[in-house]
Amino acid sequence: MTVMNFVYGFIILLAAFIFQTTITGFNRKVTARIQKRYGPRWYQQFLDIFKALRKSSITHGWIFDFGVIMALGGIMATVIFIPVAGFEAFPNMDNVYIISYLLAIGMLGMAMSAAGSGNPWASIGVSRALTNMLAYDIPLMIVIFTLIFAFDTASVSEIAAMQQGMGILGWNAIRMPLGGIVAFIALFGMLGKKPFDSFIAPAEIASGPMVEYGGKHLGFMFILHELMTFIEVSLILNLFFGGGSSILVYAIKYAILYTLVNIISQVMPRYKIDQAVKFFYRVPLVFAIIQGLVVIFLGWGVSVWF
Amino acid sequence: MTFITVLITLLALSVVTYLVSLINNKLGAYFTIVTSLVTLLLLFLLKNSIGQLASISLFTFKLTTVGWYFSMVMVVVYFTSAFLNPFWMKKMIYPAAYNLFYLVSLIGTIGMFFARDFITLFIFWETVVWTSTFIIQMGKSRKSSYVYYVVSAIGSMVTLFAMMLVYQVSGTLEISVAFNALTGQPVLALIVFFTFLLAGLSKIGIFPFHVWLPMAHGSAPHTFSPVLSGGLVKMGAFIAYISVSAFAAYEAFSSSFTIMGIPAPIYIIMVLGAISIVVGTVMAIRQDDAKKLLAYSSVANGGYILIGILLFDQLAFAGGMLHLVSHAIASATAFITIAIVAHRTGTTKMSKLGGMIHKMPITYTVYLIAIISMAGIPPMGGFVSKWLILQGLADHGLLFIAAAAFFGSIGSFMYVFRPLSAVFLGQLAPKHENVKEASIMMQIPMYLLTIATLLIGVFPKIILKVIAGIQAEAGIQEIVMVGNTIVVANGVLDTFRVFVVFGYGFLIALVIFILRRKSRRVTLMDTYTSAEFVHTPELLHYSSNFYAPFERLTKKPYPVLNLYEKVSIKIKEIGHMAESLFSSPKPAVTIFWIIIVFAIFFLGGVL
Amino acid sequence: MNNPVLLIIIPLLLAFVSVIIKKAGKWILLLGVLINTVLAFFITTGETIIGGFLPPAGINLVVTQFTLVGVILINSLMLLTIIMSIDLVGKYSVILLTALAGINGMLLTGDLFNLFIFMEITVIAAYILSAQAKKYHHTITYLIIGSVGSTFYLLGIILLYHLTGSLNMADVAAKLPLLTTKELLVPILLIFIGIGVEVKLLPVSGWVKGVYAHANRLIAPLFASIIAGTALFVFGKLFVSVLPLSDTLTMLILVMSVMTFVFGEFAAFKQKQVKEILLFSSIGQAGLITALFISGLVYAAVILIISNVVSKLIMFTIAGAFTEKYQTDNYHSLSGVFVHNKITGIAFTIAALSMTGIPLLIGFYAKLNILIGFFHAGNYVLPVIVLLMTIVEGAYIIKLLLALWAPGKEGQVSLESFAVEKKQLLSVKNTAICLIVALVLIVGGTLIDTTSKIVTNGQPLLGDESPYFIISQSKGGE
Amino acid sequence: MVLENQDNRNLWEKIGDYFSANSIWMKWYCTGCGAIELPPTMTSRFDMERLGMGPMATPRQADVMLITGYLSTKTLRRVIYSYEQMQDPKYIVAFGSCTINGGVYYDSYATINQLDKYIPVDLYIAGCMPRPEAVMNAFADLISMIKKGQANGWRHYQENYEWYKKNQLDSLEEVIIHDEFHE
């Protein structure tokens, strides 16, 4: 653990933020085009974030501030652990469980801060978000579990590296097709994209956890959202779509994956939260278990696909 | 120093405590703190004499690393919870007896962990059961005490059967030797395995036996709930440990049908563990009483511990043993904080609380750290143990059990957040305007336990070293630590680094936050209400039906407690039948029965 | 060495004296019981011939280790009962002395017909005592059933006399194996039912509830521990050492015993009155004890009798006090009664716990021996039943204890203010005795080597060779 | 209301105003008929997102509040409440003649006639109702005002708080009992 690690970490952080925010801006345009609109400028997302940081803000007590800082801190730490195209700020720290559980501290911080505002909408939003998490995470974790069993490692970068060199056929999403579908669907849940966005439903519960944020808190939430998106898409990309052999390939794949998710989600309606749970436990969970059984008992898709 | 000296010292001290309590119960309560501290120190000194044999009267003991480990956990929990005792003396109907039983149950657990023969094990086990039964009744409910005893009795009586069966077969009561006689007798081994383990299952609250936990934890005196959940439940894990180490379940069932390399009988128990994870999680999410919620979480975590210990390998076993400690500490902390809230506000119902953070920030922080550990989020103790268990499960490829583990793990975010949000965050009700922070005396255990949680989370080596010792003692592969890094076959974990990087991230966020304009403080009621004027804080506090959509999904009737009740009703019915048939006040009826008996016997004898 | 016949003669003699000196009745009773108890400790094993005729023709008293345990136990308990409830003795001193003579006779006699006579003495005394509660209906019931039982027993020994030409137990025991099973069936059956009525085996124990449930502090322990204990000892003596049972009969009696055990415990589980719980529990325990005797586990049975009668003595005394002071023994109406009577409560609790077989109490030792004995005999079904019933037993005992100790509604912390009105249950003397007796249960259960030495004196009881638990076993190969 | 013309902002404020001008989040107060003009303004015909504008759920998050028509005294109280929950800098755009002089409700006992007596209005859009073209035009004006630092209603409100408060009280009268039914 040297100073350079921390510098690299900061670079990853910065790069991830700029990259993802750009992609988000781009996707806002994509969304607009789907809706036959012209759409905002590509850098609109930056403007929004900086505008929010610029405004004055209120606080509902120390937990309201502390939660936000803890959330962003946790998410930033997670971003630092994400391996990007084989590049890791802290080597050997890309254990998939560390990433997925460290992510939770960010969410916990956000939930805490939101509930600390004393607004019932926020609590409802948090309760929905957590329920949503319970829905999408089980199938996803089962598939990840299958990967760990199959490759005998829990390191994200190692799993990513193992898929490379065989072209598209090497991707886990292709080798384990059901698992790939599950991961792809779970990504919608993780990102809070439609149809699984009932926890921020603006017209219904006034954007849920975000209801009381204004000014810098809201800016923090936007940064947090960008970084979290980066973590989640990267995780799925690394685990199921082969990561990237170089930064460029990684970025392109990333953009395609995220845009694909965005495009699909734009034509979706919204599930109620219990419908989302039912959906995840009906289809993806079954897929995940079948995939797990196939891998564990038959060994298909582990060493070779064809 | 021999173990017997320790035991007698403690017994003497507890009698002294009792006598002091008779005169002044508050002073006696302070004596419980002192005595448990003495116990802690004495036990710590005993670490050097591991391997010592001791016996007195009926009892024989052997000092083992695993026993030491378990009893240290227990004493830590007892010691820290004891700090609350002085504050509850006024609310107890029998304060002196409470103090005595508190210490006797502690001695009971220690004696049980060091037991060398079955009789010692059983006697100390029952001592703990009875003392805790009598303590629980001093709480809110007699029924819970009753259920607790009955479920415990089912476990202990069945286990006594196993013990005597083994004694009959082997001719010895010594735990480490007796089970050897079962080799080559698979059917007998199967019976002994299931029956012996039953006490453990009932104590740790595994699925069909979990009914007592929410009842007992929920209604026990607030000072004893931490002990129940953090301590006594873990006795069951010890039985599970015996069943895989001394009983050597893996060798005994080596010829039986295996699932992913796990013999079927062990797998069945592990499935029960998995079911309790799911049931515990689902039920915990549905609770309104904070203590019941934590009790159900103990059910779920008991499942993790059981699965970990039963896997009995390098990885998951270490995880199970570590989870024992991290959950014991986290759960004791959580119960202590809830106890303090209850002490200050008089209720543990989450829907009646709220906004406590503005009155008790320290309690809140302590609770927060405890639940982070309980939910298995880094950098706290619970993460390391859950990580080890999950990695172990992945190593074995136990898919369904892992699925339950994931469910429990994600579900725990839901249930630990509920009290956080409903009790501590949200709107502060006007009636709680004058609530005060916990007193210094109550803060001491919270600080101690929080430091312990953090330490385990950041430097798990402290505990894992001991666990490696246990693994060596049990003859399995030891967990490997390189520096601060845990190195296992399918992953590495450096918790210190995780902690540092988290700190780094936090620092960056903090700097950005401080650089921006300072926020204006507004009141809690100044919040977005769709422009509606609301003046009743309680109305703006979202705490009941917190996970309403999820509760809708899981509202199917819950059959297990009904099962016990049904059995109880059936017994009463049969009893009633017997009474009305045979205890008639009319002599003619008895004469009739005499004739019937005569006739049956005569026919039976002639034929 | 003294003559065991004194144990029978002295109470009888004093009974006559107390008829004459009515006013000093209770003191004479006390004196008689005291002398008897002291004497009981000094008799030794052996045979005493009465009247000069040698057995089998003459009458004899046989003292074996088994009898000795019984005599000491029953006389001591009688002494304690009388001391505790001397205020209630009143005009019953004659009856009690007669009953004592009868009881000792039942325990000591070596003659089947004498046994009948002593049994009749005891039982008639018991009829009179049961009338104390003024529930004559129940007394009549008891009278009728008891008489039927006695008649059956008498018929049985008449048949035996017809078959063997003897009434001396040893002689009969020697001759019976020569007879065929079918010849023996009817007499054994009659004797079994006759004794069964007193032992309280289930279908033939209809009288128990009525008599026990209304008995007071003196009469209840007298029935539950003294007469019941005696009956069990007699049952053991007859069915282990005298009457040979065919396999079928063993099976049938075993089934009946186990049925008594199970139904008794179940019925106790259902009850709400303290005395009814205890009396059904007594019935259940009697079933278990007879089952043990029939299975040949005499040592375990004796330990269980000791545990049971001692516990029941304490518990029935206190239960009697409940009715005496609070006019009810429904435990819901007695909620928190021990808050005001802690020491009485402790004694009651220890007795109750011993009954359920909690470690370090003698009940646990009994249970341990039962399990070891059954396992040794290759019987795996009965231990299961015993343990299951222990759970049931534990359940109703804990329910009882919780109600008596912890007042207050469900969902509320139990407080002293919820308890029933404060009354002193037992006098200081009685409390002390109860506590001391309870401590005996602890000592007996802890120093089990001493217990086993005292009970067996180094010889197997009634030829029972099955193993029993002593401390050195637990130490294994140390 | 006086619009200050002189520009005495420092560099940071100018940069900040640039961000504010290009990212305007709205909160609409839709009691009047003008709300119906907003959906076409937002959707593909006019697409206000081009200007970086978008709807937001709560006043805490929003930069501009759109008062889309007449206000009864009852709703005015809520508008003020919402406005005070907004974070600085914040702007108000008032729609239609009702907010300027009462419009068709000029003699109604239940509505207020002139909105800027109660809260500072940065921009009025005349018309009954203003069409989306007018709305878009107004937004463009608002943006240029913010850029120039001329949209200072929120500062004016702070500085003249007593005056506003007095007007509000005169019109609404003080609420004595604070509970859910009296305000």
Briefly characterize the structure.
Chain A has 13 helices and 1 strand. By secondary structure, chain A is mostly helical.
Protein model, in words:
The complex is a heterotetramer of chains A (306), B (607), C (478) and D (183). Chain A is an all-alpha fold. Chain A has one domain (3-298). Chain A is 71% helix and 1% strand. Chain A has 13 helices and 1 strand. The N and C termini of chain A lie far apart (42 Å). The model of chain A has no long low-confidence stretch (mean pLDDT 85). Chain B folds into 2 domains: 115-503, no CATH class; 559-606. Chain B contains 25 helices and 8 strands. In chain B, the strands form 3 sheets. Chain B has a 3-stranded antiparallel beta sheet with strand order 5-6-7. Chain B starts with a helix and ends with a helix. Chain C is an all-alpha fold. Chain C has 2 domains: 1-242, no CATH class; 245-470, no CATH class. A two-stranded antiparallel ribbon of chain C has the order 1-2. Chain D has 183 residues and is of the alpha/beta class. Chain D has a single domain, classed as Rossmann fold, CATH 3.40.50. Chain D contains 7 helices and 5 strands. Chains in contact: A-B, A-D, B-C, B-D. At the A-B interface, helix 1, strand 1, helix 3, helix 4 and helix 5 of A face helix 17, helix 18, helix 19, strand 7 and helix 22 of B.
